[in-house]
Amino acid sequence: MSDSPAAPAAFGTAVEIASAVKAGERSALGVLEEHLGRIGAHESSVHAFNAVIEDEARSRAMEIDDAIASGAEVGALAGVPVAIKDNMCTRGVPTTCSSRILDGWKPPYDATVVTRLREAGAIVVGKTNLDEFAMGSSTENSAFGPTHNPWDLTRVPGGSSGGSAAAVAAGFSPISLGSDTGGSIRQPASLCGVVGVKPTYGAVSRYGLIAFGSSLDQIGPFTTDVHDAAVIMDTIGGHDPLDSTSATDGHGSLESVLSDGVDGLRVGLITEMTGGAIDGIAPDVLARVRAAAEALAAAGATVGEVSVPSSVYGLSAYYMVAPAEASSNLARFDGVRYGLRVDGSNTAAMHTATRTEGFGDEVKRRIMLGTYALSAGYRDAYYGSAQKVRTLIIEDFDRAYADFDVLLSPASPTTAFEMGAKTADPLAMYLNDVCTIPSNLSGQPAMSVPFGTGDDGLPIGVQVLAPLMGEPVMFRVAAALEAAQRLEDGESR
Hints:
The protein has helices at residues 14-22, 28-46, 54-69, 112-119, 162-169, 186-192, 226-236, 271-274, 283-298, 314-329, 347-358, 361-374, 380-403, 426-430, 437-442, 471-492; strands spanning 49-52, 81-85, 123-128, 175-180, 195-198, 218-223, 266-270, 302-306, 406-410, 446-453, 459-465. The chain is of the alpha/beta class.
């Protein structure tokens, strides 16, 4: 929109920046100053960041420029600014999860993904805002204030990784990292008009990610185009001995498959998400998903419909499994070892006072729900039943992938909604993840690819889903959709 700060790839894509920096056509410091200037101009209205680390970033940029001048090898992302979701550990830099209970805490180590980006020459420019402990779909649950959508500052950017999505959409950084437990990368990517990837569970290390739901969480990138996303995935992916859930078998280079096309691929439209079985999916969103299917058919794919029946129960199962895991994971924040401490007359009183003051309402809601679901007499009825539904979802997806290489659905049921529109109704907020949650429960990869706009002129993302370690075919389809959208945009002009 003309009066908004949206400007994806304001100073070039990550691939373009790194190529120019390594060739000596641009300096890493110059690229950084361009992005810091844009942050200075628009961050006050967007609030994508909890912290911008200018001095450290400048020092790193100068190191990269010196290395290039001396003829030393630099990585594939040399000089590329990157924003990191504030639930990933960054050594010596506050990592808060947008919660008062961790306000000011500085980790003594980097998350593996941060280490890998730095080794590739990327420059961390800041830590991005999120729904507290990644619990939310609008980035309005942050203890440090909401993030606004760069396309329309009266709208939400999605969540929980709304700060990371907004940073890329506003041109503050060409790439960022988010985490996805129930759609927290793909939904904000859709609402902000950028690419967002949730990898196969275990394909990217979770070491240094502050856990929400340990069997669901995954780290992935936000980028302005599919090529950048492939490069970032190739950089941060791969086995990590520091993460016991890290997959030992990878899927090979994603950048190398982008030009392979979709001729002969079998693409399935998930009927439950495109045929009315799930309420609340807007007609303009459905129209863009069908247009995406038509574009893939025109590019040589075979398109059909496929049912994933148990996907309609994904939301219900998720809100047993995820809060139960959150209840366990967040028990460590007790005022004893790190973060906020509120004094009490005894240890129990101190725990209660610290957690009461330190956690926000949504986090408390999910801790209580999860604790109840795991309590004696209720565990089998609630948590156990949810895990059985999870197994059904996995089995239904496996059957679908027996007939199709990839699946399509909306990434978000609607375009970006107005700030405050759903904060008073938790269930309405939870429904924003109805299309994304099933692939978290199954552990399979999925990504949101921008594919036009809705009736209100705001972005719409199409979700591409693939089987376990099916990222190569998923990225082939994503690249084809991106090419089709560029062609459509050119024709519309």
